[in-house]
Amino acid sequence: MGTSNYLTPNEEKFEYWLKDNMPYLAKLWDFTESRYEKELVDNFLSVCSSSEAVMCCFAIQIWTGGGNTEYEFNLFRAMRTIGDKEIDIIHEWVANPWYC
Fold first, then answer.
1. The organism sits in which domain of life (predicted)?
2. Residue 100 pLDDT
3. pTM for this model (two decimals)
4. Number of domains, the chain
5. Which domain range does residue 88 map to?
6. Which end of the chain has less neighbouring CB within 10 Å, N or C?
7. Within-domain flag for 52
8. What is the 3-state secondary structure (H, E, C) of 31-66?
């Protein structure tokens, strides 16, 4: 999978979680450098669907431990936008939350 030896256990968990649940977002992360690519995220958010944008912001919040103010995730707004699959992903995380 090409992971770095420098990923923390939760960062490695995130990589697998992202690729399993939202593979379209995996290209926005450089797991060998243990970071998301801001320019790629910004480009993606300018062209993606509203549901994909919500899930991207959700993933960034998990990656940053909820401390990212640039890519806001709002559960109430998300629920108006996302589908059942995305709701299930969020529900699973809420039931057992973890951060990088």
1. Bacteria
2. 92
3. 0.92
4. 1
5. 9-95
6. N
7. yes
8. CCCCEECHHHHHHHHHHCCHHHHHHHHHHHHHHCCC
Residues 25-29: contacts with CB under 8 Å, at least 24 apart: 25/52, 25/55, 25/56, 25/59, 28/56, 29/63
The full length of the chain comes to: 100
Per-residue pLDDT of 39-83, as tens digits, reads: 999 999 999 999 999 999 999 999 999 999 999 999 999 999 999
Task: Please state the rounded mean pLDDT for residues 20-42.
Answer: 97
- Dihedral Cα 80, 49, 53, 82, nearest 10 deg: 30
- Is 39 within a domain? yes
Phi and psi based region of residue 77 (left: phi greater than 0; alpha: psi -120 to 50; beta: remaining): alpha
- With CA atoms as reference, report the closest residue to 50 among 26, 74, 30: 74
| Alpha-carbon gap, residue 73 to 60, rounded angstroms | 9
Question: CA 93, 51, 60, 3 torsion: positive or negative?
Answer: positive
53: tokens are 């944008």
pLDDT at 5: 64
